[in-house]
Amino acid sequence: MALQVSDSSSNRNEQIENAAKAIGNSVKKRLVFEAVHHGKRAIKTVGEISESTGLSRKQVLDSAKSLVKKHVFEQVQQKHNGDTAYKKNNFLQSHKTKILSLAGNKKKLDRYPTKRNPKGVAVRPCLTARLFGA
After folding, report:
1. Nearest residue to 19 (alpha-carbon basis) of 110, 108, 119, 89
2. Taking Cα atoms as reference points, which of 34, 27, 19, 92 lies closest to residue 59?
């Protein structure tokens, strides 16, 4: 199994953007993301997620499979009590509210700055001249 390596300190906005795009407008993916990243326990089973979200097992498995492929959280290799389980991503956990606010909001996501798509604040030339004495 390959070890995933990611530098969250230098690619913070890219990872947040990736998670928001992975969730998108899907209500089911949003519910699964919130359930996996809710509370202190790092690992949640499909049964627990299904119970807390009101989604069927199949809906949870389908939504979670898509989010695992996009590295939003990971599927645990060994079964927990005979059930498939998912482990939360600690970095994304700490940025959960930002991710959920960007997910499904195309305008907000388009304005979100990343290294590949910087969205700087334009400074008017006359303001710059006054500030820096030019």
Report:
1. 89
2. 27
